[in-house]
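User: Show me sequence and structure for the first protein, then do the same for the second.

Assistant: Starting with the first protein.
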Amino acid sequence: MFAPTPGRLVPEPEDLIEWMGVEGAFDLDESIRMGSLDARLVATIWYGLARRRSLVVAAGPRLAGKSTTALTLLALVPAGTPFLPVGGAFPADLLNSIDAGSAPYLVVNEVSSGIPGRYLWGDDVRSLLLAREGGLPFVGTLHASTPGEVVETFSGPPLMLDPELVAGSLDMVLNLRESRRDGHGARALALVGSVERPGIRELMRWAPEPRRFKHADEREIGAALGKFDDSNPDQVIEELSQRTSFLEGLVARRSDASARNTRLRDELRAFNPA
């Protein structure tokens, strides 16, 4: 039995475990160590979340790890930022009463008609995108095998949301692997610039052989991410390198069980790009 949607802000990702219906999220460093994610991919998502960008985690089949992965990546949201679980009816009244200095990250269990009261669907999805347009980013999941299918879920039938609203609200899409041979983990990370397929830019993808992530050209990644805040591509590349190195050091350090006493989100807070 899933927990009902909390009608309040919660301070930490761990507070969402029962509501999201997972047995418990892996620590981010553990996911990198196991090969489900890699440090550069996580650094790229971290760059976006640090700039209050939205993230959709998607996969075609059930039990691919969407909710677990989304919950794991919430650790990258800047410390001190609260979370607002969104399910069933969109909580417009609650958002209107929140102090501007406490602007939360919205967390959507799933964009789907599957479980009323827990998932988000219909006009409430439009309300979610309008909130994103108004400065409230979200992290959510849905069933889709490709970034293009994620966009189609919002812009195609039955939702048929305005293409400009969709393109302006979906920033990053992380698709998960779906075959047993590849195991659980990320398959592709893309940025959404428009609802047309040329506007969906894939930055990295899992390669079954030689079983590693292949990344787009650094300059392409720098130019794409730089549009988040009009940053110079060279500055973006440098910051991504710093974030990647920090994560690699964190993974190495936390491989020792005695070093895992510190909360991961607190350790991430120590990062400060030069």
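Switching to the second protein now.
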Amino acid sequence: MIQRTSHYTPSFFTRPKQLASVKLLSHYSKRNPHPKLVSLVFVFLSICIFTSAVSAARRVGIYLGTFDPPHCGHIRVALEAQSRLKLDYIYMIPNYSPRHKPGATAFSARFEMIRLVSRQYAAIRTLSLSDFEHAWETNPGDVYEPLIAKIKALHGCSTMYYQIIGADAIPRLIKSGHLPVPGENRTIVVFERKGYVASFSPALHEIMERGQLIINDPDIPDISSTKIRATFATGLVPPAEELPDYISAYIINKHCYGYKNDISSLTIPIR
């Protein structure tokens, strides 16, 4: 398991390199008592420090989905996007109330499973439960905008944002009106799915011409969430190639998807 790194929190007075720069400036000013020269050195060091702080998180991914449950295919997409796009972080955001899937599992369970995923990989994150609740209170009809605004508030307007979607989600994205506008620092990244032919509307061609649309055709197995849920309903557990053990353990422990077998006979660790 990859050890999770701490969140990036820029501070001009806590980073070791910045402290070293301040000490260097103090040492230099004592040896060179020329005020103008010392001021120029200070300006140069300040620019270097500021540039380092700003560039520390300049590419962020946003991966929205139902994640019912988050399986190995979802995780592969997130990691593939992080690698191909050289993302500093990628946020996996479970849909709070998916209208296109009215029978979806309760958000609380899907959120907890995403949190389990985020604990396994340093690059994968999610928002807090309070962030989702606030977004729902702000705009119950469409929590998308408040959640995107929250992520942008965390990383700043100078960061480039890449929204990850599956090819099957393109029609919903167009219908919702959530395509990037000209000049927006957000790019749509489509991951094609095997057996699914995406249709491209004039609106998509428009954002592609602006450089705000990227198409990826990764070699990722097509794993069915519906099949996984049905497997649990029959009292069986999907293979680890489809669903990580820690997610299976959560589902079994919480009796999600109608799973009712006795957990004492299972070899999967319950966390």
